[in-house]
Structures are given as C-alpha cells and as structure tokens.
Design brief:
single chain; alpha/beta; Rossmann fold; six-stranded antiparallel beta sheet; 19 helices; binds 6-O-phosphono-alpha-D-glucopyranose
Length: 611
C-alpha cells in the first residue's frame, strides 16, 4: 500500500525513480510524485497514475543524483495533486515520502499550528515533515538527530524516506511496521518499499527492521535504532528476476498469473513431495514438526483471498489430519480478546507477508505464547520474519491486485501440511497417502486442460457481463471456492457478488433469485453431489440462471443447468485448486468487457499495510 522508491549514487536519479514507481504501482495508484535534490529540492507530483506524472515532468529539469518517489493509496486526504507525496516542511528544509499512518497526527498538527506553522495538505505526512523541521530549527542539532527525535514522538506506522537541503548528500530511511528494503550498489543505494524496483540493479539487499533508521550516503550506510545506537547490518541475496515482473506477452498481469498456475503450483510442491519415497518434506517446519503434529488446535489468521485459502485449509486439516481448526480474519482476531495460549498453533497466511492486521495478530499470538507459523509468498517479508517458522509458497511475484496464483499456491501448501500431519499421526494408509500425492502431482496438468477452455469462459462472460448481482454457491471444500469466485468478480468488475454455502441459500439468498442474476455452482462429483443437484433444482424452479462447474462427464447437471463447465475429475480434497480457475477467468473477462482496469481495480491495493 503506497510505493516508496529512493536513489542516491552517481546516476541520474529521475529515470531510476520513475521506473521504480511503475514497478510499484500495483501497491497504490491514486497519485504519484518525485523530489529531486540538487542544491535545492524540486518536487513534481500529480493526481493519477505514474504515466500522468511522467507526462507532466517531460521536458522539465530533472538533473539530480539523489531523489525520492512515491505512488499513493490514499488514507488521510482524498487523491489530489496537493495530497500527493512528496511533502515538504514549511520552510522547505525537509522533503519526505511516507507509507503508513501517523495515528497522533491531529495532536501533533495542533501543537505545530499553535507554534505558527502552516499546513497545505490534508495528510498526516506533512505533519511529520513539519515536526522534523520544527525540532531541527528549535535546537542546534543535525538532520539525523532531528529525524530520530521526531520519530520518537510519532505513534503509528511508517516506512519513510527523508531528504534535506541542509545535508544534501544524505538520505534517511526509517521503518516501523511498514516495509523498506535497501539495495546495495557500488557507491549507490536503491531504497524501496519492496524489492521489485531494486532487482534490476543489485541482488544484495538489507531489509530494515522495526525502528531502524538508515543513514545513507553514497559511500556509506549506517544503521541505527531510534535512540541512535548502531545496529547490525544483515545483507541478504534476492531470489527474483526481472522477467518475472514483465507481462511476457499477456495483456494483463492477472491473466499471466492465472495462466502461470500450472507452473506456480509445481514450484510450490517441487522438492517437497517425493512420490517415489512416499514423503512430504516441508523444510521450514522440520524444527516444529512434533508440535504441529500434536497440536490440540490450529488457528488460522489471514485477510482477503488468503483467508479463503485458510478456509480450504480448515476442511483439509480437519478431514485428513483430524486437528480442530478455526479460521479468523486477522483484523477481528486482534481486536477482541481471543482465547489463545501455548497449546495452540497459529498459522498466518499472507501473499505479501506485509498485511498490517495479520502482522498485528501474529504479535498478539506470540505474546500469548502460541507457536506461530507462516505461509508467505514474499521471501524476506515481515510476516516471514515475525513467525517462528513457516513455508514459502514459491508462486513467484504476484502483481495483479486480485490474487490468483497466490491462492492456489497457499492451498497447495495447506494440502501438503494436512497430508503430512495425517500421515505422521497414522491416520492415512500408505495407499491413501500415495494416492493423494499422485493426485496433487496431477493438478498442474488438470489446470492446463482447464486453461484450454478460455474461449468458453469468454463466451459465458459475454452473456453475463451486464448483471448487477451474482451468487456463488458451493458445499464443503467448495464453499471457500464460491467465496473466492465472488470476491474475484466484485474486486475487478464491480458487480455485487456473494459467496454462500449452497445449503444456506434457502435461508436468505434464494429471495434474490430471478431470471437476471447468474448463480454459479461449484458442483463437482463429491460426497455432497446429490445435495447440490437439489440446490440447483431449487434455483431452476425459481427461474434462476445457473452456471455449474461440474466433473468431466457429468450428465445430470448438464440437463438442468444453463451452462456447464467441465473440469477434470480429482480427489474431493483437491478440487478447490482446479475449480477456482474458471471463476478467475470468468471474472477477468467480465471485468475486461466492462472496461475495468483489471490489474489496478479502483480503491484496492495489493498489499494492505495500514490497519
Ligand atoms: C489485499 C489484496 C488481496 C489479498 C489481501 C490479503 O486486499 O488486494 O488480494 O488477498 O490484501 O493480503 P496478503 O498479502 O496478506 O495475502
């Protein structure tokens, strides 16, 4: 949420910043801006996309070798040129970009206004810029000390970059609960809110920890904590390539990521399942395996699509491993007084590894003494570092705001965990275990077959693109798939869509059914097949329109539904991995036909680092 990029070195800073902002645009796209320091500070900022900023700057002076850039997802103050970052302090001494929320900004603002300071934007960031300047001008101190004294007064979250004409060869980066990565070049540094703008320049990076302040000069990087004590620099190597971040011929990142799923799922289980030796080995869990296998309860915490993956995990773990599972929205869990303690295993699921509510829930679970495990996609992310142990999904970078391949990768990890625990507990016979491994191995090939039906999905999308509402229904492990299908449609096409357990339909949603509203059923051949056929009949009896995802060869539903989408037969436990794919593609095509921006849907952001 909000992208931050900074450069200090000997290159022309502006092209590095603008390219970096384009890479980061998936994090927020209300407005964008840059500040370039060359004796004085020049700021260019604009409401709208990075391309609008670029057009605005074209032909203007950009000479500088130190600069900062920002792409915004609005929190305080609506998107406008004025509220766009960077923000400058009143006298122009300090210029900052900021990700996060300064919670005590109104108190600070009032204090500064009482001292006669003026404010021009509605943002909390301008308050911080003025606070730094106020402290700096009130005392005889360095830029660095003024920044750390100001940050000591701040309540809330920040990832920020500060430049100052008072010390024009210095860039300050600071972090609390909002990520920052520093890429190390030769006499140059690249700073960003995630590694995507850095990877083309260097693979040596430092992830800042909470309350770290980095003092960055061309030839020196010093890490300190808030009270100016030096802290240890821990250099990591990035495992990411530029080509991963390109569209590779696809019209949108979302489409590319949907089509990548056969490979991303394979990458998730590669080296972890061995069908010859009949083993599942999740390296990140080896040290905690006994505690996991003997857990009395597992509590999943997550948000958005990751929460849906958690619901699939609940079915799988309870069914295959017989451990009770509760799935909680991280944002709810953290604000009540949850019953959690040392006997619990808490499992945090997150694509980005940076979701603020999930991070706060992890903190709470750790304080309560629970073992906290993570399932994350982004290596080195905050969640992967804050959990006791965990498993990376290895799905590759996901840029489309609507999550697709991250979901199937998360479900793949949860499937492996459930099977592994089930086997360790002696609940799965060798035969059942090998069958599940074989079935999991078959999933990428099955998804390939489903992707071949893309034209069919386009045809269905064409028929229902003008709907105002849609209902998605499933039972058992297909219920979370229904939720995820509905979420995909509403996120990117802005059609109101709801996911429901099919049996619950008669307790409410049935009242909505008419000949205009598409009702999507996940109705594959499983233990509740007959029941779901009855639910379809109930919709048809009320003149509803039914699109059904069925198992290849199904002849019963074909007779009653308006459209059937046939997917390959798989084990009931694994069906969510395949059944979700048509729903992703139908949502994609509908959004495209409605003229929506598929990769950057309105008001949403890829990584929600505010609470
Ligand atoms: C945002 C994204 C969703 C994502 C959710 C949780 O809402 O737009 O796609 O599912 O955050 O994010 P996480 O990174 O924790 O999985």
């Amino acid at each position: 949420m909000c992208g931050i990029v900074g450069y200090i070195g000997n290159r022309d800073a502006y092209p590095v910043l603008i390219k970096g902002l384009k890479r980061l645009e998936y994090r927020g796209y209300d407005s964008a801006g840059v500040a370039l320091l060359n004796g004085d500070t020049t700021i260019y900022k604009k409401k709208g996309k990075v391309s609008e900023l670029e057009a605005y700057v074209r032909g203007k002076e950009t000479l500088s070798t130190i600069g900062i850039g920002h792409t915004r997802w609005a929190t305080h103050g609506k998107p406008s040129d004025l509220n766009a970052h960077p923000h400058q302090s009143e006298k122009g001494l300090f210029t900052i970009i900021h990700n996060g929320i300064i919670e005590n900004y109104s108190v600070l603002k009032k204090t500064l206004m009482d001292q006669g300071m003026k404010f021009y934007s509605e943002t909390d960031t301008e308050v911080l810029a003025n606070l730094i300047e106020y402290i700096y001008t009130s005392e005889d101190i360095s830029v660095e000390v003024a920044v750390s004294l100001a940050l000591q007064k701040v309540v809330g979250a920040y990832g920020l970059l500060v430049i100052s004409r008072e010390d024009p060869n210095l860039m300050i980066a600071a972090r609390r609960s909002s990520p920052l990565v520093i890429g190390l070049g030769s006499n140059e540094y690249f700073i960003a809110s995630d590694a995507t703008p850095i990877v083309e320049y260097t693979d040596r990076v430092i992830y800042l920890n909470n309350d770290d302040i980095a003092l960055i000069r061309r030839d020196e990087l010093v890490l300190k904590n808030l009270v100016s004590e030096s802290t240890k620099v821990n250099i990591k190597t990035l495992d990411m390539s530029i080509s991963e971040m390109e569209k590779q011929g696809y019209e949108h990142y979302m489409l590319k990521e949907i089509f990548e799923q056969p490979r991303s799922i394979m990458d998730t289980f590669r080296g972890r399942i061995n069908s010859e030796t009949n083993e599942i080995r999740l390296g990140g869990l080896l040290d905690v395996k006994d505690q996991l296998v003997n857990a009395k309860r597992i509590v999943v915490i997550a948000c958005g699509t990751s929460w849906h993956a958690g619901l699939v995990g609940e079915y799988l773990i309870e069914d295959l491993a017989r451990i009770p599972v509760e799935v909680e929205y991280a944002s709810e869990f953290r604000y009540r007084n949850p019953m959690i303690g040392p006997d619990d295993v808490v499992l945090a699921i997150s694509q980005s590894g940076e979701t603020a509510d999930t991070l706060a829930a992890i903190q709470l679970a750790r304080e309560a003494g629970a073992l906290v495990l993570g399932i994350c996609n982004v290596a080195g992310s905050s969640i992967s570092r804050e959990t006791h142990a965990g498993v990376y999904t290895h799905a590759g970078i996901e840029i489309g705001v609507a999550s697709t391949k991250a979901f199937t990768a998360q479900v793949t990890v949860l499937t492996m965990m459930a099977i592994m625990i089930g086997k360790e507990k002696g609940l799965l016979s060798e035969k059942r275990f090998s069958q599940l491994l074989k079935e999991l191995n078959d999933v990428p090939g099955q998804i390939e077959k489903i992707l071949e039906l893309n034209e069919e999905f386009k045809h269905i999308a064409e028929m229902y693109k003008d709907a105002s509402n849609a209902l998605y229904l499933g039972r058992g492990v297909s219920f979370p798939v229904a939720l995820e299908g509905a979420l995909k449609l509403k996120e990117i096409s802005y059609i109101h869509a709801e996911g429901y357990p099919a049996a619950e339909m008669k307790h409410g949603p049935i009242a909505l059914i008419d000949e205009k509203m598409p009702v999507v059923f996940i109705a594959t051949k499983d233990s509740s097949y007959e029941k779901i056929v009855s639910n379809i009949q109930e919709v048809k009896a009320r003149n509803g329109v039914v699109i059904a995802i069925v198992t290849e060869g199904d002849s019963i539903i074909k007779e009653i539904a308006d459209h059937v989408i046939e997917i390959p037969k798989s084990d009931e436990s694994l069906v969510s991995l395949t059944a979700v794919v048509p729903l992703q593609l139908i949502a994609y095509h509908i959004a495209l036909m409605r003229g929506c921006n598929v990769d950057q849907p309105r008001n949403l952001a890829k990584s929600v680092t505010v609470e």
